[in-house]
Specification:
Layout (H helix, E strand, L loop, with lengths): L1 H15 L24 E3 L4 E3 L1 H4 L2 E4 L7 E6 L5 E5 L8 E5 L2 E4 L5 E4 L4 E4 L1
């Protein structure tokens, strides 16, 4: 009787010490467009998944949260700009105008200042 009881206690102790690690972010998960969720975003302008922090043409401070960055991709001919920022909807593409870029609904502007770019809503 002592042997089965000892085995059961030993098994219980070993099971209690087992550490299972689960990740809250699955690095292999994909978004709606097939982009790796952990580090890629889908660009409607480029029609592909991109790593914004690596290929952005313009990097600036997010206008609503100064601890975050906003990214802008420009078309090859620089006639359009796509903005990636916290409170700007996905697929926001602006057209070139004098002094910068303007959204089709005239609500979002990307303007060139003396030494930087600025998003105005």
């Amino acid at each position: 009787m002592k042997k089965p009881l000892s085995s059961a206690i030993l098994a219980l102790i070993l099971t209690a010490c087992t550490h299972t690690q689960t990740s809250s972010i699955n690095e292999n998960s994909k978004d709606l467009h097939g982009c790796t969720s952990a580090n890629q975003s889908y660009s409607f302008l480029k029609q592909t998944c991109v790593k914004l922090f690596e290929i952005a043409d313009i990097k600036l401070t997010d206008p609503t949260n100064h601890t975050l960055s906003a990214y802008v991709l420009l078309s090859e001919d620089k006639q359009q700009a796509e903005i990636f920022a916290l409170d700007i909807p996905e697929n926001t593409i602006l057209d070139v105008v004098k002094g910068g870029y303007l959204s089709k609904d005239n609500k979002i502007r990307l303007i060139k200042t003396a030494n930087s770019w600025k998003i105005i809503k």
